[in-house]
Amino acid sequence: MSPAMSPLAVFPEVATGPGVTRRVVADSPQLMVVAFTFEAGAEGPLHNHPHIQSTYVESGRFVFSLDGEEFEVGPGDSFVIPSNAVHGCRCFEAGRLIDGFTPRRDDFL
């Protein structure tokens, strides 16, 4: 397959806040995979969106808030965030989250 026809796309790493970066790993109109890297002490502020989100903790330790309930997660943990649920996190040990969104987050492109 020629490079012009390659299904692989390279997306830049983008700063999303103090101590947090994101990089789109893969996308299609129906699904997007995004890697978020957090420094210890960094936060993902409370927010919501219409997309269903799955989160896999590749590394680090986090406390998530999901519709007012808090829970701690670490490497290997995963969970689903329903459409429009208010959620955010605090990072206690530097790490990386792998998030899947359906449909794709066009605002991340």
TrEMBL record:
**Gene3D superfamilies the UniProt entry points to:** Jelly Rolls
Q: Which domain of life is it from?
A: Bacteria
Q: Which InterPro entries match?
A: Bacilysin_H2HPP_isomerase (IPR052535), Cupin_2 (IPR013096), KdgF (IPR025499), RmlC-like_jellyroll (IPR014710), RmlC_Cupin_sf (IPR011051)
Q: Which Pfam families match?
A: Cupin_2
Cite the Cupin type-2 domain residue spans from the record. 36-90
**Matching CDD domains:** cupin_KdgF (cd02238)
> Entry's PANTHER family?
H2HPP ISOMERASE
Put simply, this protein is called: Cupin domain protein
